[in-house]
Amino acid sequence: MPRQSIWKSLALGAVCVVLAASMGCHGHMKEHKDYSHHNVADVPVPKELNKVTLPPYVIETPDILLIDAIRIIPLPPYRVEPLDVLSISATNVFESAPIQGMYPVDPDGTLNLGPAYGGTVRVNDMTTDEIRKIIETRVRTFAKNAEVTVSLAQSRGVQQIAGQHIIRPDGTVGLGSYGAVYVAGMTLAQAKMAIEAHLSRYLYRPEVSVDIYAFNSKFYYVITDMAGAGEQVARLPHTGNETVLDAVANIGGLSSVSSKKLWIARPAPTECGGDQILPVDWKGITRRGQVMTNYQVLPGDRVYILSQPITKIDTYLARMLSPINRLMGAAILGGSMAQIFGPNQGGNGGGAIVSPVIGAGF
To answer: What are phi and psi of 47, to 5 degrees?
Structure first.
């Protein structure tokens, strides 16, 4: 094909690409422009000066709960373990060696009554009534009319429940040796009841306090259109008080390619049908301090920031014309190389490579 025909074809192709890019970008912008015409400013949705408190928090993975046991009493009959503390009192014993006070159980499972009553007595894995009988039998060998009472003062063997507990991927929270409890989808009051009901299998009338230590499951999203170069998505934790202005501030403001068109896309149950689009008047909420469209952001909201149309067109044109520029550059380079390294027409031998300086007659 002649060289002039090649250039004509390339030029015609470039014009077609420009027209296609312009039409495609125009259609894309028109689609977003339709969203901005949804007039929902008068809908009673929460705004900057009319915020609402959210419903009771629903626990989800991977929230972190703060669980502290208020009352942990083992179910009777409790069997004494090492490091437990017993309250022992005895009457009709030696005045010089009274038995009265707190007596810890040693790690080997024994309890020391002192040298006046024979030293230690083994009490491990016994109930308080069994321990009372054993101690009373031992003491009566020295003081025949002794009367002994025994009660559990402090249990060291029972696992303590305190501190931070993360919600596992299966929706349960671990309680150590007491197993796990499913709490996902529950409020704090419901989780407290579920944990206490589970612990009642091991403890007598357990009581715990439950609170949220870290809110890790509620987010909103700020999506920035990068003018044809992709979309940046920022996932931000929801604290319950953010507005649109807060959301944009949390990502450092609008980017250099962003326009002043943005809106909130609010998720809704599938059966509701339709999109919930809340257009935002950016100039109004920033330059004029208006609160009409400075909506309160709710968990799951998408704050979408549209790019500038002219920047998007420039990006599309640069992307579509880049292959043509490469082809044109390759064609020009090939033509130049053919002129430089082509066969010598002056008779120096067929196919000989002649330098352009020599060929010029120098």
So the answer is: -135, -175
CATH match for 85-154 among 3.30.470.10, 3.30.1950.10, 3.40.50.10470, 3.40.630.30: 3.30.1950.10
The 10s digit of each residue's pLDDT in 215-254 is 999 999 999 998 888 889 999 999 889 999 999 999 999 9
What does the mean pLDDT of the chain come to? 82
User: Quick one: CATH architecture of 30-54+218-311?
Assistant: Roll (3.10)
CA end-to-end span of the chain: 34
Q: What pLDDT shows up at residue 344?
A: 55
Asked if residue 46 lies in contact with residue 154, where contact means CB atoms within 8 angstroms, the answer is: no
Neighbours of 290 (CB within 10 A): 14
**Cα–Cα distance for residue pair 178/201, rounded to 1 Å:** 9
Domain borders along the chain are 30-54+218-311, 64-74+158-214, 85-154
Fold agreement (30-54+218-311, 85-154): no
Tokens representing 146 are: 């002794």
Measured torsion, CA atoms of residues 327, 328, 332, 335, in degrees rounded to the nearest 10: 60
| pLDDT tens column, 185-206 | 999 999 999 999 999 998 889 9
Q: Are strands 302-307 and 219-225 parallel, antiparallel or unpaired?
A: parallel
The answer to whether domain 64-74+158-214 has CATH 3.40.50.720 is no
| CA-to-CA separations, 89 to 81, 120, 135, 149, 230, in angstroms, rounded | 20, 16, 11, 5, 79
What 3-state class would DSSP assign to 223? strand
- Sequence length of the chain is 362
Q: Where are the beta strands (DSSP E) in 276-341?
A: 276-281, 302-307
Q: Where are the beta strands (DSSP E) in 32-190?
A: 64-71, 85-91, 100-104, 110-112, 120-122, 147-154, 164-166, 172-174, 180-182
Residues 6+ apart with CB under 8 A from 40: 277, 278, 279
